[in-house]
Design a protein that fits this description.
Layout lengths: L12 E5 L5 E3 L14 E5 L2 H4 L4 H11 L36 E3 L2 H7 L2 E6 L9 H19 L4 E6 L3 H13 L3 E8 L5 H9 L3 E5 L3 H14 L2 E3 L5 H7 L1 H9 L7 E6 L4 H15 L8 E7 L4 H7 L28 H15 L4 E6 L1 H12 L7 H15 L8 E6 L7 H8 L33 H16 L7
Parallel strand pairs: 5-13, 6-7, 6-9, 7-8, 10-11, 10-13, 11-12
Antiparallel strand pairs: 1-2, 1-3, 4-5
Helix pairs in contact: 4-5, 4-8, 5-6, 8-10, 9-10, 10-12, 13-14
The structure holds pyridoxal-5'-phosphate and zinc ion.
Zinc ion binds next to loops.
């Protein structure tokens, strides 16, 4: 058994600009390149040292940590050396994020879809979405910064499609002083459950008329001119935390990702960036020998990344799109911040594993809703974006992109409860025409009122219970037990 004391290895993290290649030290907080405005990825300039440990040894180390009660290594930092190996143990914030379950689809559902697949339930994170993975890392970095710089007050801000603000507010509330949290939301464009989260965590919640892309612009102006810590996905530390997802998938399947396809919804494109980056690191260290195939999924109402990759390889041109109403609301983004990261990593990914290793599929709103409801009727807890992944798998299969012996892992990025309103709209067939979703009778469910309230009048509780029980018997056609 490996010992699971906190690792002594420390790397050196640099921001690398994807626009002009400029480098900055990871010792201060940067969002975009001061030289060209490009986005950054963090790179461990001491990564080569990690190669002194061989792939099988890394696997043993991570497997040993799976059994640890050592809090700092229980969540995403099980993979400490591959994420942000500059923090000390006291910096690490752990709220139970990561190590989420992978649940195989039931036999019946696999038959219906015609594919082998599982859901990874990232809605089982503390604020009920995968955003907690990134926040655990971003807040650990903030603690590290505050400690080193002796800062006594830091304002954290983010624009959000709902889940980023829920996660940011939760982690800020936990860490407390010197952090204070402000979130900017597009009014009416987050679900009531998502809005309740930062409010419950005590954050200052500011609403703006418009969509996510509008909020993002405001936050950018603030981050450029004032001392605030921006927690949107321009913050590269979040990407590092989100890399834990792919590491967990690999570990669950015994570090063998051959014949696995990972399906991921694309919104701001941070999640798919992180997943590609983690897979490349695992391969570079010999932790896995084969890269999994990665499929991004976008709704036709917010599909700029799909449009980019649908063009011929040598003539691709990126254009932001104007989004229209989408049930995959957390991914309803027309100008993804992390697109340059995706483009850069996808190029490396395909150079190593071929053009089929990274693909993007597009699905309709109707397919997303039908897929989510179908998954959940079979024991899953997928949100609309999780439904988008299943719709993407079905689409990829219909297009002949999935082989017979391949197995898919779908990212259920949030808990279904956060998006219960969309389910309700479906069950009452009341989607606004802009969504383009009509309910299918076989997927609708609604409560049945057993007795009108007048039926209770003048009856004792026990008498009413007998009457209601009789109504159940009638409704279900129950026959008495044989004595
Ligand atoms: C943020 C989010 C997405 C989109 O992820 P990106 O990293 O922005 O591409 C998808 N699903 C849920 C539930 C989210 O909260
Ligand atoms: Zn630059």
């Amino acid at each position: 058994m490996q010992d699971t004391t906190f690792p002594s290895y420390r790397g050196r993290l640099d921001y690398v600009c994807l626009g002009c290649g400029a480098r900055r030290s990871g010792e201060s907080l940067h969002y975009t390149c001061p030289d060209c405005g490009g986005v950054f990825l963090l790179e461990n300039t001491d990564f080569a040292t990690l190669n002194q440990t061989k792939g099988p040894e890394w696997r043993d180390i991570f497997d040993a940590r799976a059994a640890t009660a050592h809090v700092a290594l229980r969540g995403i930092f099980r993979y400490y050396e591959l994420l942000a190996p500059i923090f000390d143990e006291e910096d690490i914030v752990y709220l139970g994020e990561g190590i989420t379950p992978i649940v195989e689809a039931s036999g019946k559902l696999k038959d219906e879809i015609g594919c082998e697949f599982a859901y990874k339930n990232d809605g089982q994170n503390p604020s009920a979405s995968f955003k907690d993975r990134g926040m655990a890392c971003a807040f650990s970095y903030l603690k590290w910064l505050c400690r080193r710089n002796k800062w006594d007050e830091v304002l954290t801000v983010c624009a959000s499609t709902g889940d980023t603000s829920a996660a940011a507010a939760l982690y800020a509330a936990y860490v407390g002083k010197p952090l204070k949290s402000v979130v900017l939301l597009p009014k009416g464009k987050v679900t009531p459950q998502q809005l309740s989260q930062p409010l419950g965590s005590g954050a200052l919640v500011l609403e703006i008329p418009g969509v996510f892309d509008d909020c993002m612009k405001v936050v950018e102006i603030l981050a450029e001119k004032y001392r605030v810590a921006l927690l949107n996905s321009k913050n590269s530390w979040r990407i590092l935390g989100q890399e834990s997802y792919a590491l967990e998938v690999a570990q669950w399947y015994g570090w063998d990702l051959s014949n696995h396809c990972l399906f991921v919804p694309i919104g701001n494109a941070g999640n798919i960036t992180a997943i590609m980056s983690a897979c490349l690191k695992m391969q570079a260290l010999g932790i896995v020998s084969e890269l999994p195939r990665i499929f991004g999924v976008q709704s036709e109402h917010a599909d700029p990344v799909w449009r980019y990759y649908a063009q011929p390889k040598d003539a691709r041109h990126f254009e932001p799109v104007a989004v229209t109403d989408s049930v995959a609301q957390a991914a309803m983004i027309g100008n993804p911040v992390s697109f340059p990261r995706v483009r850069s990593l996808a190029e490396r990914y395909c150079a190593l594993a071929g053009d089929r290793a990274f693909q993007v599929v597009q699905v309709t709103e109707q397919q997303i809703m039908d897929a989510m409801l179908t998954a959940n009727r079979n024991g899953h807890i997928a949100c609309t974006q999780g439904g988008e992944c299943l719709a993407g798998l079905m689409q990829a299969k219909a297009l002949g992109l999935i082989g017979k012996n391949e197995h898919a892992v779908l990212d259920a990025t949030a808990h279904s409860l956060k998006f219960a309103d969309f389910q309700q709209k479906y069950f009452t067939d009341s989607f606004a025409p802009s969504y383009g979703v009509r309910a299918k009778a076989e997927l609708i469910n609604a409560p049945t009122l057993l007795l009108p309230s007048e039926a209770r009048e003048g009856l004792e509780d026990q008498a009413f219970a007998r009457l209601a029980a009789e109504a159940v018997v009638q409704k279900l056609g129950l026959s008495p037990k044989e004595s």
